[in-house]
Structures are given as C-alpha cells and as structure tokens.
Amino acid sequence: MLLRRLKDRVVQSEPDRIRCIATSATIGRGREDFPAVVRFANELFGERFEWLEDDEQRQDVVEAEREPETALGECWGSGSIELYAGLSAAIQEKRGLGELCQIAIEAGIPQTIVQDAQQQANQAVGAKQERRLLHLLLRGDGRVHRLRNLLKSPRELVTLPPEVFPEQPDDPEPLVQLIDLAVRAKHDADEAPLLPTRYHLFARALEGAFVCLNQDAHKQDEPFLFLSRQENCPHCKAQIFELAACPRCGSAYIVGRDQRDGAQRALRQSSTVGDDPKGKLAYFILTDQIQLPDEDEAVVAEQSMESMDEESVEPYTLCLGCGSLAHGKDASISCQCPAQFPHLTVYRVELKENESALSRCVACGARRTQHLSLIHI
Ligand SMILES: [Zn+2]
Ligand SMILES: [Zn+2]
Ligand SMILES: [Zn+2]
C-alpha cells in the first residue's frame, strides 16, 4: 500500500519508471524458486520482474555466490588463542594500529605479512584503518579458512570450538573473539567482511507454568515448578496443576476446569479436558494469600462495598495426588490415592455469572483492564 502510494506521488503510477530493488536472505531456496520470486516481486511492487532461464538479458534475480576460500590467498599458519584475545582487548581499548601490529608479531604472524598489512592499512582513513588491518592479518589465518568452510551452512555455536580450537574444545570464548574480529575485518567499506557471520537466537513463548503442590515429598534438588505441560509429577507422581499469576502482586492461582463425574469432582488442566468455550475456568488460591476486602480499603479505593464484594471465596479440599475436589474445609474425598498424597485446603474464587475468567485479583484487588490482564504465566 505504501509502495503504491509512493509510486502514485512520484511518477503518477506510471510503470517502468522507478527501479525497484529488493533483497532477502530468506525468500526462495535457490534457482528452482526464481519464477516464484519474480512473481512475488511483481505483486509487491506492481512492476515487471522477469526470470527467463535461457535469456541473460531477462534475468532479474541476482543469486548470491560463495567466494571460495582460495580467494583469500595463501595461509601463513594458524592464529593463537592469545592473538585473538590480545587483538580483541586492544580494539576495545582503542590502542591504535601500531599496538595491534605488535600483538600480531608477538603472536607469531610473519613479520612481512604484518608490515605489508600496516602499510596498506595506513592508506585507509580513520576507523577503516583498523578494519583493513584486521582483514589483511586474518585472511591468511588457517582458522578463519576452517571456520568459513564450516559455516557453509548454519551451525550451533557450541559445536564449533572442538573443530576450530581442538586444543581448547570446551571454551567458546576464543571462537567468539575470532568471529568478532573476522566480522570487523573488512578491506573496504563497500566490501563484505572477512566472515559475514550472524548469530541467531531462538526464543520460544512459554507454554505456561505448571506446579506440583506435593513438594514436601520431593528431595531437595527435585523441582516442583515446570515450564512445559505435564500431567503427573516426574518425581512424586502427584497431579500437576496449571499456575496463573496476578501481574501486579504476583499471587499465584491454580487454574483449571472443575470436572464433575457423578458425585466425583476433580480439578483438571483446562487443556486435558478439551476446549469448552462455554466452560468456566476455576481459580483457586492458596490459604496464606487471601486478603479479603475490608471496608477501609474500599473507602481508600473509592469503591463501594458492593463492587468489592463481587467475588467471594469458598474453601475446598483438594487431593494433591489426583486432583479430586470436595466442597468445604477438610472435607472427605473418596479417591484411591495412597496416603502419601496429602489433602490441601484451597480457596476457590467464585466468578460472576457472566465471567469465564478471573477479572480481579483477590489478593491485591488488581482488576483486569486493557493493560492489566490476569494472565497465565
Ligand atoms: Zn511432585
Ligand atoms: Zn486423590
Ligand atoms: Zn494481585
């Protein structure tokens, strides 16, 4: 839409007058996708893009080509771990070309290479000197050649040190320093760096937080909080409950569906009983967190008692082994769980008639608004 508007304002949408160039590192898997790539560009820009296999004049897709390692020239040997550490520190402290060259010579880079690099670097201007020097020093480094070769396809960082630094396979630091230096190394401003490397970090949204409330039965190093969904505790086999938290005070609720099967009731994770759009979620708060609204607070908050009293809490007894529920404090539960699974009193927050999820934290009074929602962790 913006492109169309721009073309309209600049050339009254007349085709073939603006030269459109697009770059992408992710579109297409190679030559076989070029027809699809030009179709995409046609649609995106509303301009003519072509790819004709047999007509070099009508090929609008420019393919990346890998420069072979031999283009880097002869290797003078391999840099040492001290070389990379020394160069990194000197660059950080902006110690200048002379000192970088000194470090290179002390670390064993042949004197002729260093002298030649210094001479050529001196012809560049300002900060480009340092980049050119690094390029000239490191392009003949056997480790850079090896690394370039290994990075023909993406690699996990931790798998590389044993192949690039076999003498120190468990320490990623020299590798990270070498990569930083090689990314900085550039002969000219408009050229690619010696190693055009990027780090990619993958983040995954949390599925939720899940808790075993039978933590007294756990050994000290056995966790009771899990960040992936599970139904039974791997340590004590108790039922796992899903946690929700108030974003303001951090109070934890266990949340699920109150499933009834005849006289039996049980609290289940909402996902394990299927999605029931009409089914209400049930929220339980642990005893020590309850703070029932009192009149003073209502006055301070300039709210009427009616609005403070909308939710009420009801005690329930919960079997930590199987999730069975019974109304009332210390109520009897007729489940088959062995005695090591205790019963716990929890307080259910009664939702209003038209609510399907909790809208107010009973511990701190925070309300769900546009900016404040009671979220699953
Ligand atoms: Zn457990
Ligand atoms: Zn039970
Ligand atoms: Zn709260």
What does this structure look like?
With 377 residues, the chain is of the alpha+beta class. The protein folds into three domains: 2-58, no CATH class; 71-184, no CATH class; 209-350, no CATH class. It is built from eleven helices and ten strands. The protein has helices at residues 2-11, 34-45, 81-92, 97-106, 111-122, 128-138, 142-150, 161-164, 173-184, 295-300, 305-308; strands at 209-212, 225-226, 240-245, 252-261, 264-268, 282-286, 313-319, 324-327, 343-349, 375-376. A six-stranded antiparallel barrel has the order 4-5-8-7-9-6. Bound molecules: zinc ion (3 copies). One zinc ion binds at residues 246, 248-249, 251, 361, 363-364, 366. One zinc ion (ZN) binds next to loops.
Widest sheet: strand ordering? 4-5-8-7-9-6
Structural class: alpha+beta
The parts where pLDDT drops under 50 for at least 5 residues are 300-309, 370-374
Q: What compounds sit in this structure?
A: zinc ion
Question: What is the helix fraction of residues, given as a range?
Answer: 25-40%
The share of residues in extended strands comes to 5-15%
Q: Cα distance, first to last residue?
A: 38 Å
Succession of helices and strands = HHHHHHHHHEEEEEEHHEEEE
Mean pLDDT across the residues is 86
Strand count, sense and barrel status of the largest sheet are:
6 strands, antiparallel, barrel
- Overall tally of structural domains: 3
Report the C-alpha radius of gyration, rounded. Answer: 33 Å
Number of helices: 11
Q: Shape from CA axes?
A: elongated
Extended strand count: 10
